[in-house]
Design the sequence.
């Protein structure tokens, strides 16, 4: 008998005669009235920076943003028209990472980043810009998870800049992920 | 990891005496967490959430074999290698095989209480692997060679001054360095480790059976990095971490975050489903080690199995007025505070965990805080009862309780005792029990006359 | 209201260390038209033994207590923890005992009895302007759900309940805990006392808590009146 069989048989024996508890059905929370507004508010409360913009405005936004950076690492699934006018750098070196989110969740102020576009771009550059389509901003986490058909290999829910208060209870940003999270919601 | 719970009374007393800064630091940190939790609980229909979470966990636990098998199937379908470990030996075997086969020289670790139980760090180090704890708090205590003091904030017992001194000695930073500067140094060291590590090790907050998904929560990003950059990722998962459906994460992720730190969701949540696909970034190999290490024994316990609902959020530690005075070290095992007092005897044995169930006044604050309604005070009473039945009580306690019963069983003896309390000069310094009282609280002063005598005067006065 | 009859369970700690609380409780109840009996032979509810895990000793005393009070319609105690012992834990100690179950329904802490059974929320004006630090005993608060009753009665009598950051935190008495883990127990008392507001009196439903806190205050040279809740409620009525 290997460890697996021993463990499983111990579990079965432990549960013998124990009454079975029922599983409550999944939650169906009421849809939230204005997910876009809520998303921006919650993101800001988390220390992130978010704004709404029409797709036509993205070009000028990216141009302005590019002024402050020497280059950017780009997510592989980032649409061409959403790339900043900057030389592409590897994530280990880039001061800016740009991603295209799978979806966003308003109640928690989170963006969902899939491994298809890479993982280093989400984590290594100190500033992270995430673009997300407005119709992919769900009100609740329950809705968002329900909408997923295929799970990516890795899905990251990012809700703000990286932070820690482990040093004398003083909040410090950017240990170890990006210290700045910018989100542009495209209407 | 061996438990040193029996030293709790001495260690707690010593800590209070010799390191008063710990009490101050822990009190500050836990009150802060508590306030945040209360605010976050007040924002949602928390009683509904708690009831529901309890129900889901009870369901999983009462069908655990089924869910373990389902999870294993899904994990295997996703290309994850699944191992089962009864305890440290098998866990070490998994690591040994990987270290040898892949020539691992450096490992990065996310915070995981289970890996502390299993002694993962010392084992890897014995193989010549350089291990980096990457959670900032864990990194600090790794540098100091101390065990974690709290489930969520392992270094809350350290003051800023102590950390400044540590970095000054280790890295030559100035003694007045700001927290930002110190964090910057740690970030640099650990960034290097992330980029060069051959192996990433984590625990898991949840394992979803329906999809074989691992869910991990954090605020720093070190878990995302540890599970993304190295070529091999090993996740140690306690049997009790299972959830039935992906949709259950919509309850458990926010509930755990609110309970632990008062957040709506942790800054980073990783939902992991296997090794990287061709051409994708991510680990080539993902291993999940399903670990027993006392969990099946606790599951079999008809009164204590509910303890396994624990989400490791630390809310009970933050609420506990006893824990607050010393932090986690005196408890002598991985799990301290209220949950430690009921989990340790269940996972290890009552003998090994004694007298932790007595490290409590039964005030009930922990039960109010617990997101899955573990009846900790009731469990503490059960363990105490068992301790007495197993003969673990000290001799003086048994004698004192015997005398107490004799006196209270007989009104005549009780009245005699009452007179003695006032008549004879009680040797308050001699009796160790009384000395333990009077040393910190001054001598006991009974009322000039006990109520049972005054009653008769009341009867007379009121004309009865 | 004149027909109501209660049995007073003074509790061992109050009997010995806060006898005034018993006197106050009896006077107050009688003034409100309640007949009060004091069943002889009452001693201790068994809580110290139960909490320490010595359930055989606790059971003996529980059975005894049930016998002593079996005639009572209501059992009133100037103690939250003992009331909780009788109400919540006797049925656990004596599972299947219908007697214990029936008994538990008749048990009340004093302020709980006044407000919930007698429907009395105003006693008088006797505490006008008195600044009170109210310590919520853990068993009263979390096991009996007694939180508003003492505050209502005190406030309606003119008392000012001062804000106290640590008001609902455990004082560190915990029965045998106070002598099994004295250093931690004292550190908990110090936490309470270091946040104490500028009050004229410290009060609570529980004698154990008051004994522990007043003892610690005395040792540290602090000088604040400590009075059991029953005493203050009588002062509220009698002026």
Sequence:
């Amino acid at each position: 008998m290997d460890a697996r069989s021993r463990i499983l048989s111990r579990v079965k024996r432990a549960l013998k005669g124990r009454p079975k508890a029922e599983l409550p059905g999944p939650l169906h929370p009421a849809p939230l009235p204005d997910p876009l507004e809520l998303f921006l508010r919650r993101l800001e409360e988390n220390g992130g920076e978010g704004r709404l913009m029409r797709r036509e405005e993205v070009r000028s936004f990216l141009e302005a943003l590019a002024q402050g950076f020497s280059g950017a690492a780009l997510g592989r699934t980032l649409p061409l028209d959403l790339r900043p006018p900057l030389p592409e750098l590897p994530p280990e070196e880039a001061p800016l990472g740009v991603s295209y989110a799978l979806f966003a969740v308003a109640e928690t102020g989170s963006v969902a980043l899939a491994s298809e576009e890479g993982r280093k771009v989400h984590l290594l550059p100190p500033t992270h810009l995430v673009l997300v389509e407005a119709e992919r901003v769900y009100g609740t986490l329950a809705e968002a998870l329900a909408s997923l058909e295929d799970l990516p290999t890795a899905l990251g829910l990012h809700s703000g800049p990286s932070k820690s208060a482990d040093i004398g209870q003083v909040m410090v940003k950017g240990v170890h992920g990006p210290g700045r999270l910018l989100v542009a919601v495209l209407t | 990891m061996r438990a040193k719970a029996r030293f709790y009374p001495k260690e707690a007393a010593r800590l209070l005496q010799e390191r008063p800064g710990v009490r101050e630091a822990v009190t500050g940190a836990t009150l802060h967490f508590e306030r945040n939790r209360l605010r976050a609980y007040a924002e949602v229909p928390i009683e509904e959430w708690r009831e529901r979470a309890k129900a889901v966990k009870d369901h999983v636990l009462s069908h655990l074999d089924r869910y373990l098998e389902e999870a294993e199937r899904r994990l295997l379908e996703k290309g994850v290698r699944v191992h089962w470990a009864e305890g440290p030996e098998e866990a070490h075997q998994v690591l040994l095989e990987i270290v040898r086969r892949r020539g691992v020289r450096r490992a990065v670790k996310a915070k995981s209480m289970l890996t502390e139980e299993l002694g993962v760090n010392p084992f890897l180090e014995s193989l010549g692997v350089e291990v980096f704890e990457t959670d900032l708090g864990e990194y600090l205590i790794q540098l100091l060679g101390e065990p974690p003091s709290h489930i969520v904030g392992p270094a809350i017992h350290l003051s800023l001054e102590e950390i400044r001194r540590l970095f000054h000695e280790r890295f030559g930073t100035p003694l007045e360095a700001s927290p930002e500067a110190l964090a910057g140094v740690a970030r640099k060291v650990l960034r290097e480790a992330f980029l060069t590590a051959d192996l990433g090790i984590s625990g898991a907050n949840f394992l979803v059976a329906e999809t074989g998904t691992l869910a991990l929560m954090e605020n720093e990003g070190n878990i995302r990095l540890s599970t993304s950059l190295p070529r091999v990722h090993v996740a140690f998962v306690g049997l009790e971490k299972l959830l039935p459906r992906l949709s259950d994460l919509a309850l458990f992720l926010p509930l755990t975050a609110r309970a632990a730190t008062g957040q709506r969701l942790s800054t980073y949540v990783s939902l992991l489903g296997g090794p990287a696909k061709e051409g994708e970034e991510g680990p080539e190999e993902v291993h999940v080690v399903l670990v027993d290490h006392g969990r099946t024994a606790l599951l079999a316990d008809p009164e204590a199995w509910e303890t396994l609902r624990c989400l490791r959020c630390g809310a009970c530690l933050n609420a506990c007025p006893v824990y607050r005075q010393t932090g986690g070290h005196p408890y002598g095992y991985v799990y301290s505070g209220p949950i430690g007092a009921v989990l340790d005897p269940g996972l290890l044995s009552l003998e090994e965990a004694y007298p932790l169930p007595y490290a409590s006044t039964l005030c009930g604050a922990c039960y109010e805080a617990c997101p899955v309604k573990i009846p900790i005070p009731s469990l503490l009473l059960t363990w105490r009862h068992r301790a007495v039945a197993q003969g673990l009580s000290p001799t003086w306690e048994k004698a004192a309780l015997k005398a107490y019963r004799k006196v209270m069983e007989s009104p005549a003896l009780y009245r005699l005792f009452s007179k003695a309390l006032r008549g004879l000069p009680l040797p308050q310094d001699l009796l160790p029990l009384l000395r333990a009282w009077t040393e910190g609280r001054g001598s006991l002063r009974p009322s000039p006359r006990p109520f049972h005598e005054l009653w008769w005067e009341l009867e007379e006065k009121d004309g009865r | 209201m004149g027909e109501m009859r209660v049995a007073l369970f003074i509790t061992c700690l109050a009997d010995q260390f806060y006898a005034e609380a018993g006197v106050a409780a009896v006077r107050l109840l009688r003034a409100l038209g309640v007949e009060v009996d004091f069943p002889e032979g009452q001693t201790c509810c068994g809580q110290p033994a139960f909490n320490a895990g010595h359930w055989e000793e606790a059971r003996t005393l529980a059975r005894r207590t049930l016998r002593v009070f079996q005639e009572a319609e209501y059992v009133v105690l100037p103690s939250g923890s003992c009331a909780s012992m009788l109400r919540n834990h006797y049925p656990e100690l004596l599972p299947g005992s219908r007697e214990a179950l029936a008994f538990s329904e008749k048990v009340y802490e004093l302020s709980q009895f006044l407000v919930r059974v007698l429907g009395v929320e105003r006693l008088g004006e006797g505490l006008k302007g008195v600044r009170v630090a109210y310590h919520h005993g853990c068993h009263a608060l979390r096991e009996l759900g007694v939180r508003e009753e003492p505050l209502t009665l005190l406030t309606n009598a003119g008392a000012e309940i001062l804000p106290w950051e640590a008001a609902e935190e455990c004082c560190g008495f915990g029965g045998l805990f106070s002598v099994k883990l004295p250093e931690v127990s004292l550190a908990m008392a110090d936490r309470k006392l270091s946040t104490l507001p500028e009050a004229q009196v410290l009060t609570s439903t529980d004698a154990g808590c008051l004994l522990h806190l007043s003892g610690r205050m005395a040792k540290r040279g602090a000088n604040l009146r400590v009075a059991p809740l029953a005493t203050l409620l009588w002062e509220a009525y009698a002026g």
